[in-house]
Amino acid sequence: MQSRTPAPRATGRPRSAAADAAILAATRQALVELGWSKFTMGDVATRAGVAKTTLYRRWAGKNDLVVDAVAELFDELRLPPDRGTLAADIEGVVLRFAALLERPEARTALMALIAESTTDEALRARIRSSIVDRQKRLVLEGRARAQQRGELPTEADPEAAARTADLIFDVIAGAVVHRALVSAEPVDPEWTRSFTTLLLNGLTTSTP
Amino acid sequence: MQSRTPAPRATGRPRSAAADAAILAATRQALVELGWSKFTMGDVATRAGVAKTTLYRRWAGKNDLVVDAVAELFDELRLPPDRGTLAADIEGVVLRFAALLERPEARTALMALIAESTTDEALRARIRSSIVDRQKRLVLEGRARAQQRGELPTEADPEAAARTADLIFDVIAGAVVHRALVSAEPVDPEWTRSFTTLLLNGLTTSTP
Amino acid sequence: MQSRTPAPRATGRPRSAAADAAILAATRQALVELGWSKFTMGDVATRAGVAKTTLYRRWAGKNDLVVDAVAELFDELRLPPDRGTLAADIEGVVLRFAALLERPEARTALMALIAESTTDEALRARIRSSIVDRQKRLVLEGRARAQQRGELPTEADPEAAARTADLIFDVIAGAVVHRALVSAEPVDPEWTRSFTTLLLNGLTTSTP
Amino acid sequence: MQSRTPAPRATGRPRSAAADAAILAATRQALVELGWSKFTMGDVATRAGVAKTTLYRRWAGKNDLVVDAVAELFDELRLPPDRGTLAADIEGVVLRFAALLERPEARTALMALIAESTTDEALRARIRSSIVDRQKRLVLEGRARAQQRGELPTEADPEAAARTADLIFDVIAGAVVHRALVSAEPVDPEWTRSFTTLLLNGLTTSTP
DNA sequence: TCTTAAACGAGACGGTACGTCTGGTCTTATC
DNA sequence: GATAAGACCAGACGTACCGTCTCGTTTAAGA
């Protein structure tokens, strides 16, 4: 986020830090109330009690602004305290992720940004670094715990280990997002348990 | 799709079927070239050689039009011919689905529509009936084949069977979409094989 | 008006005379309720219970249709019965003309058509032959009566007589129209008497 | 005209005076080239090198804009220098008024505005205050000169004097407009002399 | 009575303008 | 030099009419 204030200027009126916070809060509020397509920069400025120029001085446009606004939400995601088993850890993170996706500002912004990113490589990079990649640590931490417990073997090849972590991340995040946003069904404890069982045991053995 | 011609009128000049086809084709072309945010109704009309009013006479707006345009793409998805094993069938359908998601019009439209659908219940229903639910048959057909081969047991409870099918659909579709659009990494045969192994055997046994 | 049915066709279904009447009546009604700028062909068609094509089969456009519709009103203008003096005859015709201009359909249509005619020579000719020139007979008849009574001399030069008639027509019609539509003041008996006195006696002698 | 800048704002970027002038000039040019019915706001904006929003920020629509544009023309009308007789003064002002009505932008706009004003009371008031009433001073000045010369008596009753001035204004303006726009005949010196003679001497004595 | 050809209703069609809204920039005066 | 205010250009929005067209149906005159 500090990337957008490239150099600390020595002269003139300093930028208002309060304005930054107000703008990001107003952005999230506007996303909640309006959704993506009715979300406008002018509206955010009004809500934040700020001039439009102040927005554009800090962010290049809608997309950049919203990335920062929702990144703050995703930064709150944490791995739950160690519950003793890999299955419990997975269920915990799935439910926390699902809780995040139930916030309307996250739902609408996330999908819209990904849609925009299909034709905007810079935006894609920004989303990955600000939002997506930060969540991978959850997978890595979870695996480390499981390996300590002896539930998972320690992989020799670090490259293969990274590939597997990416795969698991895509499976977990993808399944939860698809369930919540595409199928539009609740990610409740029951579904979470079924999903975790499938993920751990596989299709051939998880069905009794 | 026939929902947009509510009643077969007996009187007046009939609607041009050629215009319908030209508009849907122009819609896909515009999505490819412009992406979602620069996609405009006027541009589609011009490409299709049609007046803007003709678009609005058939579709209420961008969203409805694009749903129909991309639904035509998804209707082309077919389960590959029986390859003898469940693993091969899964890999086949994953690769076909990934191929579809590599088409820029599908990528950009799908995510944007889902984003819009988070604040538009009618749109969500339209997407489900026109696009999503139709693909579930792939899961059902694949399971039937596997059950005939004896790879999967026949479930007694039909409700539980339906829930499982939904779960598998969310996992497969979600993982592929996430890999392709969020992680923006290729869904190549190697990844597909790893994913299929994980799905069939589970996390605890699939990592040697 | 018959100019719009160029040749009596020998075959096919004949045009409905009832439709003609209904359309002209609907035209006047629409002018009353909507004024010129909100007057639309489609609305007239609906009011007349007729298809738009039926309008365009008979008239080339708004202007032509309205010319015919208001011409019917102006055809009702008659010189009042001989009241014995030129002053009384003038007052009579001024009041009748003013009564016509109080009809909203006449007010709005007349000025609008004249405005259009400034950039449409054919329309100007059509207005003159259908509306304006027909009223000149009122001036000619009035003069003839006055000459018979001896109130006005008989002019020797017929060309000069015609020029004078045109001048008087412009003065009477122009003054009444300007009073009614531009100044938007009532053309009541009092004003009519003042105007007639001025017209007969002139500025230098009419103000006591 | 200043009525459209309701309050002198203290803050924000001030409105461009250059834009105002460019728009009014473009309006007159468009009226000349296109006439009233083909005159469009978008076209004026393009001619003036201005965005459509800039037009609508200042004027509510076509009518208001054109009133201001033609009012500037009418403001140029002046009583000619004193020519020594009332007849000469009248002829002078008639010819100047006629010259104005020969400008296509004045012809087409004036009649169209009057037509619109028949169903729009606010527009009528605007036309009167911006265009019509300002010309009455010509009548008042002319009468004052004539009274000084002794050609006309000084009226005792100021109300009657006002009524007479209004009447003369309607007769002069009405006759000239009718001659120029309805009869579509030239207001040349010959016609002007005949008209002035009629106005001064009346019908009964002006015809030899 | 049976053609037959134009008139008719309905409404879709390609266009064009409307007046509004948004995006992103700029120009003021103020802080 | 940052700020609030708001004017500015550019261009898309969805609507309304225009005048034309294409249907299927109706209707009178001539065969």
TrEMBL record, chains A, B, C, D:
Domain HTH tetR-type: 17-77
Residue intervals passing through the bilayer: none
Keyword annotations from UniProtKB, A to Z: DNA-binding, Transcription, Transcription regulation
Source organism superkingdom: Bacteria
DNA-binding region: 40-59
InterPro entries documented for this protein: Homeodomain-like_sf, HTH-type_TetR-like_transc_reg, HTH_TetR, Tet_transcr_reg_TetR-rel_C_sf, TetR_C
Name of protein: TetR/AcrR family transcriptional regulator
Protein's organism: Streptomyces cellulosae
Lineage of source species: Bacteria, Bacillati, Actinomycetota, Actinomycetes, Kitasatosporales
